[in-house]
């Protein structure tokens, strides 16, 4: 958009000058001089406008978190390079953009376990509709409503949920305030979870089992975007509810925090949490960042207080055709000995700590027009029960084995905003989980 | 209504001045009782009815006779079924269930997964406390009144009859059905209001409150109780707090078919053709078509189970140790629990006709064992679980 405007101006100037030469043959010199002066003045004005626009364009380019919505992303840009649909988009719109924008993303997945093909499953995993609306140049709202598993009813497994509903106001050119139900600024995926934004049919395990993506909380946060490429986020939000822990189910072993998140649905809010995130994008193509979240989680329901803390470090580098990423996340829950004592003997006790990390490399082997093919490999290691507090001999559960998953596959960009995916996942511990995956996703 | 309120108010205030409301002023004691116990007038009246032996044909049996508050609202004897009738010599057909913590119960229904749930009595045939309370008064082997009218005649002679009239109208005794239903409603109100029916004062409750620690053996017992591969007791008797902070009731109010051995102590079992089929054989016949539920009985709460003297619907076992041993050895050592036939074969599930043996739960731990397997719990582990069950008795004092 910003490039188109100067081009049109240059063409206009050229036409004007051509017209000027033509006219010189049929008018007097005085008339010609007057017209030349007039055109010169107009040209000077156009140059001034052009310089102003260039300056503005340069300032926007320097902004660290310019959104890479599918429509804006370069044709062969790596998925999610620079942020997701809503990530820290500035409130001031390009002048041609409407005040209200409809957004959507979705994914259809097919999973076929290698050793248990009878468990093969096809699923409309997510269908999401959202809108963004700008109330004025400094204030906007963003929302998403999601349907999981195609059908949601009393007899079906699907869910309907509000994934985002927040309002953001620019306070200064660098600082904004956001309030509502928002995605937590943790890791690489949580805020950028559209299927076009990550490699592989399924989201990675570390950012689902350890970081409970899509993780959102209700609260307020301040967002600072600085010229040196630093983005700072900090706020106060709702947190987890350990009273929801079900020791008889395996949910807590699959994702300790996913089992007790509240999603702002009648959330217990006696104990509010605090969080912060810092990302640096000072070098084009490079992102380095980290986050921390901490808050009490028994919500005054028990005499035992417990604090949940989760932190992560992440990096992403996209030199030339490469897209490289690394992430480590670790969570801990305090006072689990007291909390677990009444639960002894159950299959899933509350872990003291859990962690995981991954390395990922993708390479754009081919691109043509909008087409782009990105083979990738991802190696993950994660443990949802790295340690348990001591409950005494015979009562303390064994820590869980660390699962290692290697995912090999490719993303194929059909056109901007549409991706086809295929991969194979190999599990070192749970060998029966080895599977082939196919996926179709979109985002706009 | 206003007159009644004024009357109650007067009787509440006048004693402060006159130190009494007169011999005929039943409302005086009513108001005083309400003030002392925190019960509403109807509940306070229900308490009196609950413990009034004069409402039985024998003159010796009330609700409280079998539902003794000192024993977890269960009998203080080891009879498999209580004696009743006009001469207190007729044996009932099933053991007396405890009635504590039943204010959290629901009426009978099938849940979303088709599991029978709720209801009162061992077969869930009563939909409420009131419906449950209506039956023993007329049961020939319990309080043995010949009719509702007979009960109301006895009620009219009671010391609290005047309170009953004040609450329900001076002509209430002339309307027998109305009086009978209000009598059962008063009992229901008492069972709902009086926290003695749900005190949550056991050692385990204190443990959940973080005020006391369980001993080593009790903790081991809890772990075995919860473990899905050992006792697996919590599958039907949940032991953990709810997500809303509610304390566990140690029952999910469902039903199960356990194949409990026939109890020769029950007179009805002298007839070899008689079988107590439980859920599918409710008197109303409403479940007759569900033959897959023949032999199923309600899962009782285990709160105060250690003060009970008999266990299961037919009172077949008299100690917790035997009860737990049966659970874990039913299939591994059936000869210990069932008679051996002339052919030398053990007659498993001998209290059910053969066509219903398939209804017996043989899939869940600890019932999923085979002959000769090791039981899910060892003898020492059973002792541990018994130690834990002893922490569920209300009235714990450190």
Order of helices and strands of chain A: HHEEEEEHEEHEEEEHEEEEEE
Top CATH class of the largest domain in chain A: Mainly Beta
Averaging pLDDT over every residue of chain B, what do you get?
91
**What is the class of the largest domain in chain B in the CATH system?**
Mainly Alpha
CATH architecture of the largest domain in chain B: Orthogonal Bundle
Gyration radius of chain A (Cα, Å) is: 26 Å
Would you identify the CATH H-level superfamily of the largest domain in chain B? Cytochrome c-like domain
Tally of separate domains of chain A: 2
How much helix, percentage-wise, in residues of chain B?
Answer: 25-40%
Taken in chain order, the helices and strands of chain B follow as: HHHHEEEEHHHHHHEEHH
Estimated radius of gyration of chain B: 23 Å
Concise overview:
Chain A is an alpha+beta fold. Chain A is 16% helix and 41% strand. In chain B, 44% of the residues are buried.
């Amino acid at each position: 958009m910003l490039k188109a405007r100067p081009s049109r101006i240059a063409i206009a100037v050229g036409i004007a000058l051509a017209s000027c030469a033509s006219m010189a043959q049929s008018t007097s010199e005085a008339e010609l001089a007057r017209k030349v002066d007039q055109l010169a003045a107009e040209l000077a004005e156009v140059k001034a406008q052009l310089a102003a626009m260039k300056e503005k364009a340069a300032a926007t380019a320097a902004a660290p978190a310019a959104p890479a919505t599918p429509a804006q992303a370069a044709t062969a840009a790596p998925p999610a390079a620079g942020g997701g649909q809503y990530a820290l988009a500035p409130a001031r719109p390009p002048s041609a953009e409407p005040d209200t924008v409809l957004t959507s993303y979705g994914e259809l997945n097919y999973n076929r376990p290698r050793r248990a093909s009878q468990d093969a499953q096809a699923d409309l995993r997510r269908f999401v509709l959202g809108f963004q609306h700008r109330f004025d140049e400094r204030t906007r709202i963003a929302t998403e409503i999601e349907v999981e598993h195609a059908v949601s009813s009393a007899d079906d497994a699907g869910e309907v949920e509000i994934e985002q509903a927040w309002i953001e106001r620019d306070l200064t050119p660098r600082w904004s305030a956001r309030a509502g139900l928002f995605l937590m600024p943790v890791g690489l995926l949580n805020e950028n979870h559209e299927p076009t934004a990550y490699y592989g049919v399924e989201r990675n395990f570390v950012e689902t089992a350890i970081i409970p993506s899509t993780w959102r909380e209700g609260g307020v946060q301040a967002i600072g975007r600085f010229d040196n490429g630093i983005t700072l986020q900090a706020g106060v939000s709702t947190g987890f509810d350990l009273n929801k822990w079900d020791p008889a189910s395996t949910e807590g072993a699959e994702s300790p925090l996913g089992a007790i998140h509240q999603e702002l649905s009648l959330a217990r809010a006696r104990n509010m949490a605090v969080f912060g995130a810092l990302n640096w994008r000072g070098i084009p193509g490079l992102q380095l960042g980290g986050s921390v979240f901490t808050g009490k989680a028994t919500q005054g329901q028990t005499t035992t207080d417990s604090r949940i803390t989760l932190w992560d470090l992440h990096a992403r580098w996209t030199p030339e055709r490469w897209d490289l990423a690394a992430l480590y996340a670790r969570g801990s829950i305090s006072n689990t000995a007291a909390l677990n004592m009444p639960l002894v003997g159950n299959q899933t006790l509350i872990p003291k700590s859990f962690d995981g990390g991954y390395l990922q490399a993708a390479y754009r082997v081919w691109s043509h027009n909008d087409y782009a093919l990105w083979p990738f490999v991802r190696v993950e290691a994660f443990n949802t029960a790295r340690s348990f507090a001591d409950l005494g001999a015979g009562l303390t559960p064994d820590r869980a084995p660390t699962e290692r998953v290697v995912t090999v596959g490719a993303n194929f960009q059909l056109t901007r905003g549409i991706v086809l995916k295929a991969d194979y996942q190999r599990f070192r511990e749970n060998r029966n989980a080895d599977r082939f995956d196919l996926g179709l996703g979109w985002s706009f | 209504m206003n007159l009644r309120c004024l009357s109650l108010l007067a009787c509440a205030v006048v004693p402060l001045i006159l130190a009494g409301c007169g011999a005929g002023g039943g409302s005086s004691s009513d108001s005083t009782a309400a003030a002392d116990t925190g019960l509403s007038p109807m509940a306070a009246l229900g308490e009196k009815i609950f413990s009034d032996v004069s409402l039985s044909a024998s003159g010796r049996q009330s609700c409280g006779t079998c539902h003794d508050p000192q024993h977890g609202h269960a009998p203080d004897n080891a009879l498999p079924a209580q004696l009743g009738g006009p001469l207190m010599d007729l044996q009932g057909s099933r053991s007396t269930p405890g009635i504590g913590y039943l204010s959290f119960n629901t009426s009978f229904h099938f849940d979303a997964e088709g599991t029978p749930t709720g209801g009162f009595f061992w077969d869930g045939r009563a939909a409420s406390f009131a419906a449950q309370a209506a039956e023993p008064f007329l049961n020939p082997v319990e309080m043995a009144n010949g009719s509702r009218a007979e009960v109301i005649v006895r009620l009219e002679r009671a010391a609290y009859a005047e309170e009953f009239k004040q609450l329900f109208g001076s002509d209430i005794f002339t309307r027998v059905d109305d009086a009978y239903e209000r009598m059962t409603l008063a009992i229901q109100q008492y069972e709902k209001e009086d926290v003695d029916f749900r005190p949550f004062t056991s050692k385990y409750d204190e443990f959940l409150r973080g005020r006391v620690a369980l001993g080593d053996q009790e903790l081991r017992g809890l772990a075995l109780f919860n473990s899905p591969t050992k006792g697996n007791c919590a599958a039907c008797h949940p032991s953990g707090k709810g997500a809303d902070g509610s304390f566990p009731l140690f029952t999910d109010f469902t039903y199960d078919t356990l194949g409990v051995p026939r109890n020769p102590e029950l007179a009805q079992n002298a007839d070899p053709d008689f079988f107590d089929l439980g859920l599918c054989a409710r008197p109303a016949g409403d479940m007759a078509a569900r033959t897959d539920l023949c032999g199923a009985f309600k899962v009782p709460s285990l709160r105060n189970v250690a003060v009970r003297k008999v266990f299961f619907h037919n009172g077949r076992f008299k100690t917790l140790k035997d009860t737990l041993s049966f659970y874990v050895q039913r299939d591994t050592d059936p000869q210990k629990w069932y008679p051996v036939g002339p052919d030398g074969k053990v007659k498993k599930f001998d209290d059910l006709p053969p066509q219903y043996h398939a209804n017996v739960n043989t899939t869940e731990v600890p019932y999923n064992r085979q002959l000769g397997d090791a039981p899910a719990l060892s003898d020492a582990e059973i002792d541990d679980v018994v130690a834990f069950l002893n922490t569920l008795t209300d009235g714990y004092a450190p």
